[in-house]
Amino acid sequence: MKIKLLALITALSLSTLGFANPSDKSLDDLAKLANYEALFYRSVADSLENDGMALAYALSNNSKLTDDERKKAMEAYNSYAEGLLKSLDTPQVKASLKKSYLQTAKSIYNQKEVDVQLAFYGSTDGQNALKKQGAMTSSYLQSAQDANKSVLEAYGKKSEKTLQEIEKIVKKK
User: Looking at the whole model, is its pTM more than 0.85?
Assistant: First the structure.
């Protein structure tokens, strides 16, 4: 009877470990393996790139501008984008990114999930998977964009009409 009770108590205590909040040390170890900084910087760079393409498109469709004015506008935007990226490459930003990662991970993962990730990403296969993650995401998004090119082009034509509509509305004011 005592052995059954001891086994039950042990099983219950071990099963609750899976639901326990992860320790700060294990989260810190996970942060060392995660690509949270690269993910943040890539999202900012992608956003800037998309905004730059939208600006180039809008400038090219503005018949009131000269080629030199379009070029200067794009140079101004590119200078802004480079400045923003450089301003984000500071110890303070890196510290805030780590703090955000740790807080988010702590609110989402339990200890067992962190332990599993540490075991995987700490392995050679896990490290190789992490190294390939950026290329995988980039390649997938390009492939998905190519596969849906006709839909995106149709929407691009619609956005041109929408921009013209917005210009009419703005000019009334």
Answer: no
